[in-house]
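Dear colleagues,

I hope this message finds you well. In preparation for our joint manuscript, I am sending the OmpA-like domain-containing protein (Kangiella spongicola) sequence together with its predicted structure, so that both groups work from identical material. I would be grateful if you could confirm receipt.
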Amino acid sequence: MKSLTSIKKTFTVAALAAMVASGCTVLDPYTGEEKTSKAVKYGAVGAVVCGLIGATENSKHARNAALGCGAIGAGVGAYMDHQEAELREELAGTGVGIQRDGDKIQLIMPGDITFDTDRHDVSASFYPVLDSVAKVLYKYVDTDLEVAGFTDSVGAEAYNQGLSEKRASSVASYLRQRDIQASRLHVKGFGERYPIASNESASGRAKNRRVELTIIPQEPR
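The corresponding structure tokens are as follows:
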């Protein structure tokens, strides 16, 4: 006689197979909103995997099942939507800019609040902000992070390139200390390239001295 768990597994697979055949309609695990196949980037296979995880009692993957299935089953867009919402809540009033570009989330950290002048070590006053970032990133494990450093145009180009790399590395190092896996972090320095404001004014240069953290959904493995 089949065990209850086995019956659950069989029922889940059958139900999900029927779902796939009917157009792969799934539910956003956070809101309960229906998502059609057009929104499901990872496809029906991911939905079946999520069903099996949910049907298996005491699964060692249960800790991240809901979040993981958000990315695999309900679509990357929904997963990133909820991550963005949590980041906006945590970072309200901190001076960190948040921009959304498709399935990417960009956090812009101005240098005047993140670093002291001509320094690459993170200012202690900014630790609580990075702690809030790490708190959200730790929950959403299906994302990678590009940490990019930038400077203004004052000083030698080679010096600015090195400073931008060191600043990005400092932010990445802090996040690693807050249990963000090193394999998720990709550090780059762009020096004085790609300014977001004019370097002709003090306020513009302050905006250009920055670190940007771009959160990107992982490709299915």
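For the figure legend, we might mention the following. The CA atoms of residues 18 and 24 lie 8 Å apart. Confidence is low (pLDDT under 50) at residues 2-31, 35-68.

With kind regards,
E.M.
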